[in-house]
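hey
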C-alpha cells in the first residue's frame, strides 16, 4: 500500500496533496475490487503498466456527489434566518450587493439551491441589489455537468414540490434547471489548496457574505484542513457565514476567528474583530 501511495505522490503530486492516507487506502481498495485484483503487489504492477489506471485512481479520489438542499436543516437556517438577517444588515448599511461562494460545488446542486432560496425569499425586495454566486471545484467534469444543469430524480428528492414545478423543466426522466437560476451562478476551476490565490479568480477580491465548504475537508489531513479553513475565513467579509458539512467542524483547539452559531449544524460566523 505504501509503495502505491509513494507512486501516487511521485506521479500525481498536485492531485493528492494533503489527502488523508486512510482515505487513499480506501480508494485503492475500491479500485482493486473493481478490477478484480486481490493482491496489492499485482495491483501495483498493473498501475505501473497502465497510464489509464493511474487516471482512474486519481479521479476516484474526487467524490462528485451532491444533491439539491442536502442536509435540509442547513438550508432552512439559511432561508429563515441568515438571508433575512443579511438583507436587513445590507439595507441598514446601504450596501447594494451580496456575495456568495460554494467552494467544492461538485455538480452544482449546492449553489443552485442557494440561487433558488434567493429568488424565493427576496422576490422584489432585492431589486437594485447585485447578487453574485461563485461556485468552484477541481473536478472539471463535475463543473461541466453543473453548467449543463440537467439532474436526475435522486438529485432533487429533497426539493419542495412547488420549487421543482417552478424552477425545473421536465425532460423525460430528467429535470433541467431554468435559465434564471442557471445564469445566477458563475462556475469555475479553483483548488482550495492554492496558497497564492485564495478566492475564485472571477470573484476578484472575495469579501463573501456566506461561504459553503461542505463535504470537502473530510478528505484532507488536519494541516491541509486548517490551511483551507484559514484561507476561507480570509476570503469572507467580517460577520460572514461559513457552512461546513454535517461531519465537519473547526477543531476547538485551533485558534480561528469564527464562532459556531448553531448547536445542531456546522454553521460558523466570522468574528468582526
Ligand atoms: C462530496 S462533494 C461535495 C459537494 C457539495 N459541497 C455538497 O456537499 O453536496 C466534494 C467536492 O469537493 C471537491 N474538492 C475536493 N478537493 C478540492 C479542492 N482542493 N479544491 C476544490 N474542490 C475540491 C471535489 O472535487 C468534489 O466535487
Amino acid at each position: 500500500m505504501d509503495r502505491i501511495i509513494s507512486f501516487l505522490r511521485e506521479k500525481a503530486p498536485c492531485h493528492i496533496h494533503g489527502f488523508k492516507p486512510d482515505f487513499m487506502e480506501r480508494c485503492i481498495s475500491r479500485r482493486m475490487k473493481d478490477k478484480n485484483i486481490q493482491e496489492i503487489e499485482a495491483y501495483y504492477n498493473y498501475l505501473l503498466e497502465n497510464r489509464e489506471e493511474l487516471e482512474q485512481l486519481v479521479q476516484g479520489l474526487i467524490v462528485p456527489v451532491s444533491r439539491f438542499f442536502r442536509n435540509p436543516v442547513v438550508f432552512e437556517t439559511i432561508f429563515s434566518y441568515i438571508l433575512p438577517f443579511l438583507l436587513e444588515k445590507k439595507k441598514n448599511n446601504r450596501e447594494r450587493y451580496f456575495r456568495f461562494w460554494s467552494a467544492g460545488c461538485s455538480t452544482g446542486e449546492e449553489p443552485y439551491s442557494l440561487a433558488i432560496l434567493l429568488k424565493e425569499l427576496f422576490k422584489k425586495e432585492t431589486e437594485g441589489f447585485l447578487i453574485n454566486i461563485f461556485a468552484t471545484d477541481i473536478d472539471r467534469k463535475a463543473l461541466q455537468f453543473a453548467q449543463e444543469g440537467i439532474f436526475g430524480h435522486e438529485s432533487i428528492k429533497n426539493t419542495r414540490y412547488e420549487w421543482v414545478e417552478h424552477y425545473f423543466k421536465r425532460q423525460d426522466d430528467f429535470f433541467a434547471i431554468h435559465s434564471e437560476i442557471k445564469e445566477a451562478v458563475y462556475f469555475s476551476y479553483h483548488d482550495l489548496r492554492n496558497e497564492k490565490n485564495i478566492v475564485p479568480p472571477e470573484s476578484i477580491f472575495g469579501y463573501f457574505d456566506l461561504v459553503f465548504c461542505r463535504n470537502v475537508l473530510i478528505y484532507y489531513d488536519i494541516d491541509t484542513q486548517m490551511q483551507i479553513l484559514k484561507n476561507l475565513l480570509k476570503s469572507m467579509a467580517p460577520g460572514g457565514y461559513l457552512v461546513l458539512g454535517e461531519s465537519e467542524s473547526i477543531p476547538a483547539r485551533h485558534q480561528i476567528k469564527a464562532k459556531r452559531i448553531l448547536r445542531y449544524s456546522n454553521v460558523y460566523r466570522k468574528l468582526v474583530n
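The chain has a mean pLDDT of 92. The beta strands are 97-103, 130-137, 150-151, 168-171, 174-177, 185-189, 208-213, 236-244, 258-260, 267-270.
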